Amino acid sequence: MNDRFTEKTAAGIMELYYIALTKEAGIMYVCDLHCDTLLEIWLSELRNERLSLKDTGKAKEPLHIDLKKMQEGGYLLQNFAIYADLHMSAAALSAGGTNPALVMPGESLAAAKKEEEEYADPWLQTTEMIRVFKEEMAANADVIGQVFSFQDIEENRKAGRMSAVLTTEEGGIIKGDLTKLDTLYDAGVRMMTVTWNYDNELGRPNRLPTGVREDFRNFYRFVPESGRGLTSVGKEAVARMEELGIIPDVSHLSDDGFYDVADIVKGPFAASHSNARALCGCSRNLTDDMIRTVAEHGGVIGLNFCPSFVMEAEDESRCFTSCEALAAHARHIMNVGGREVIAFGTDFDGIPRRNLEIQNASMMQRPADYMLGHGFTMEEVEGLYYKNVLRLYREVL
């Protein structure tokens, strides 16, 4: 029997099954490529007021994402990013009373927790958030399960659980040491941004235009600089990511770095939380050529809910993320790259809590209702909500 035909047929059957579930339940299943919820939970622990992923509704500042909201919003899968701040104060971390026993095997506390230096070690931050993630998965195993392979998503669904994929946001956490990619993979990391907003050993992000503080409209007058691509170590790291099964993520990366990734990677890569630069001209969004390039690789682009990445305004406080504005970005990206390239990458718990029509994970059905009433087909919306992410994960994980 033809193996490729068998695989394609099995994938098609699974796809039809999810569609049937969607229609039966009357909801659109949600797969989200990016949130910063782990960081918020870890920081709350450092403040001695540890939030629970189960439900943050009674907290002083409830999170965008918790399990209760995810269940209400119809979630099938959430990517949980480890965001390590390369400029996090070492003094602030020390004040939190970090437990030496929580450092990953092979890492001495002296090497990881450098109190004498200005910045906290990013690898320590990473291992702490991995610990938080594992603890939350164990405490809520009846509701959600970690994903190591695509089969885990299906097993979780059969057991009535949501799925959680561990990702990282900041390639600088490995400090150019490629062996740490293997450590991250073993921990379950399946997607990784090459940079955040700082230069690191792997590559460089786009710089903000000058004069943004004086005139916020300059935020949307971004012109990419040349010569800000991947370093030689960064190129090796991206190749190693693909070899391991960690999806390279180009959100936050410079334009030159984007094309370096596209030249290196043979299969899919992702922009987990970026929008269309043609509609909103900030450096965090993708040009039409970038959208086509991601699509040609079979990758996906996650719509970011950050208001200043969705619409342009004279002042940041006037930016607003509406279902209408998100639909415009989705339509543009589909028109340029096809309907299989679009997904969600909300950036929940990493974006402002104001000026959002979709205020948290419990409201994730609203965009579907809007889009289905404004010219989007059911197949297009299903692709955006879950089918395109499942296709990517079926191929890579």
Please describe what this structure looks like.
This protein has 15 helices and nine strands. The longest helix is centred in the first third of the chain and has 23 residues, at 3-25. The chain starts with a helix and ends with a helix. The chain has a domain at 33-78 and 90-167. The chain has 397 residues and is α/β, with parallel strands linked by helices. Helix 8 links the parallel strand 4 and strand 5. The chain has helices at 3-25, 37-46, 67-73, 90-95, 109-112, 122-139, 150-158, 179-187, 232-244, 255-264, 288-296, 307-310, 323-337, 366-372, 378-396, and strands at 30-32, 75-83, 144-146, 162-169, 189-193, 247-249, 270-271, 300-303, 342-344. The strands form two sheets. Strands 1, 2, 3, 4, 5 and 6 form a six-stranded parallel sheet that branches.
